[in-house]
Amino acid sequence: MANILLQQLFISALFTLSLSTHFCLSSSKQSATIYDILRSNGLPMGLLPKGITNFTFDDSGRFEVHLDQACNSKFENEFHYDRNVSGTLTYGQINGVSGISAQDLFMWFTVKEIRVDIPSTGLIYFDVGVVHKQFSLSSFDTPRDCLVATMSVNNQLIIQSVPKRLSRKLRTPNHHLQEDLMAVL
């Protein structure tokens, strides 16, 4: 009888310990920020703008970040973040990036992949399709403020607003685009 009681007590204690371990691990996984996840995958926290709290991350490494609005951050070049940014994390890189663009020579390029060298060379590489842009890794150490992005016409970002007195001189092949531009100004 004493053995049965001890066995039940042992099983009950083991079950309680297992349950509390599960809840502790679940709690710590949920409390991790997207910046913690980037860092644990060998990437700098500053790849994404400051203040992100709404994101998903699964066991395959797939993540989605949801911003309140599209925005731009300035590093060595300017980066644009759409309202939704996604990709797949593996150690030292993000594949299948969606929602990030980089400006170079007044043109915007869609970022397709981001990677760092392992071991680190102090550089970070952005695959924008036609070339791989490299930047100093230290530029991305901390998340930057993200300023509200201006509107996009035909996937071309308008970074500076046009004064109303000059807007009449703008000619667009599509009258609706000109109306849309005027509505923003």
UniProtKB/TrEMBL annotation:
Organism per entry: Lactuca sativa
Lineage: Eukaryota, Viridiplantae, Streptophyta, Embryophyta, Tracheophyta
Segment forming the signal sequence: 1-20
Pfam families: DUF538
Stored InterPro entries: At5g01610-like, DUF538
Protein name as it appears in the record: Legume lectin domain-containing protein
Key words of the record: Signal
Gene3D superfamilies: At5g01610-like
Superkingdom of the source species: Eukaryota
